[in-house]
Amino acid sequence: MDKGVWVWPSDSRGQKRILRRVANSPNLIAALQGIAKSIEGLSNPELDELLADNSNWMTLWSVRQLLALGFIEYKVDFFGGPARYLVTESGRNALSTITGQPAPPKPPVATTSTAQPVTPKAA
Question: How many domains does the chain have?
Answer without folding.
Answer: 1
